[in-house]
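Changelog-adjacent note: as of this version, every example in the card shows the full chain rather than a window. The one below runs 312 residues end to end.
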Amino acid sequence: MSAGLNKDLHVVVLMGGWSNEREVSLSSGQGVAAALRQRGWTRVTELDMGHDVAARLAELKPDVVFNALHGTPGEDGSVQGMMDLMGLKYTHSGLTTSAIAIDKELTKLLLVPNGIRMPVGTMVDSDSLYERDPIARPYVLKPVNEGSSVGVAIVHDGCNYGNPIGREVEGPWRHFERLLAEPFIKGRELTVAVLGGEALAVTELKPHGEFYDYAAKYTDGETDHICPADVPQDIARAMMEMALDAHRLLGCKGASRSDFRWDEEQGGAGLYLLEVNTQPGMTPLSLVPEQARLKGVDYGELVERLIAEALA
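Full-length structure tokens:
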């Protein structure tokens, strides 16, 4: 798909910004820019997004923008809408898809009626957690519109949050007014990347800590990646089908990554999609490049495929 690309086109790699995932975005963007230069692209500009991003893009006049931003506002439709108004071509998903997929509640409203199994969740005011649990323990609390497991807490009987949760105890309730509460799905942490309309593989994630949180995702040595995952063929096939269906239902472009929990004691009925990431990381530890390599697509080719789809 990337054959025949004009490598004299001006690519602006948009990264950084001010979200909680800034450092990861910078790592993704720097990796993308380096790969393009190594493959002979002559005009590659790295742009650390500031509040003057529209003026900077107008000044740079890119032929295509590689969107390496993670989190808000680079992954929630805000930057996508701006680039649409400016008539710019860019990688990954567009405004509507991004706005829905970043919002875990909206994602459920779209996917669950279409047959995608997800944990039943309920929105709660953070202040109410100091009085009572919203659902039976163990449960998970997460911000409705953050990625990379930012602000996720697992509340169970043995945790040090208290019962009810203590007002002074550190947790997402101190940083977000409303949170999504979901039953904790025991079992294995798995993920599937989709690229170019194809589900690539299943990776099992074995964090050394309690769960696959932000630190586990982006700290070298904190998580073991088993790719391909050692799971039954029917479970792997079901995950890949669910990831591809979610990609299509949401209208994703470029690459996406769907995260799962699987309770193997329940077989297929224990498989749940947790969320869909429309702008997966492109760092050395990231899962999409890892799965692409398994399919014979190296990092540079992956970057070019994403650019080719954006230009098309």
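Structural remarks: The chain has three domains: 10-91+303-311, 101-117+186-296, 122-183.
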